[in-house]
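Request:
Um, any thoughts?
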Amino acid sequence: MSLDIGLYIVPTPIGNLEDITLRALRVLKDIDYIACEDTRRTGNLLKQLDIPKKELISYYDSIESSKKYKIIELIQSKKSVALVSDSGTPLISDPGYKLIKECIEKKIPIYPLPGATAFVPALVASGFSVHHFCFFGFPPQKKGRKAFINKIKSCPYTVIIYEASNKIMKLLKEIQIEIGTDIQVCIAREISKVYEEFIRGTIGDCMEICEKRQLKGELVLIINEKL
């Protein structure tokens, strides 16, 4: 079954290879080109999934503005292109927004596939309210960080943040100072991977655990809504 011409947004596994969907496998097998953050990493993924070699286009933050035109030209020349990130759903704290916007302006069909992403399983397993939530992605490390923390402070809903394990203590301390010591948080670590775990409690409890254990891996921080 041949693919329609257009841009396919394809989620890739965030840990367990079984996170890939049957539809994603078919698209990656039949697609003409794949735009990806790291060609070596995507090439290895295709090999693990027993998908034949594909034409890979390097597509990451610093070259997104220029490479989007190459992808547009390929699609306009009747080629199908898949956009993938290193893991999870493209655009979620990853490049792709500029390409999607350009495709919309050029009236190029976009086919978004459902699939793996870290914050959804972290949220639903946190034990906090999922009726209303705000996703903030990664905090800025310098410029705009104070404004970022203030936005979290003013948000009345469940808050979701991505952060690296070596930077989580700094973030927790800032949140504790600005919001308080009694707020409930959940740190989801290594979602979908062998060492997946959830650390729940007050922010003080979780800070104590982080100091003792020096957590490793990819983290999702969930902050309970302000009751």
Q: What stands out?
A: The radius of gyration is 19 Å. The chain has two domains: 7-112, 119-223. The chain has eight helices and ten strands.
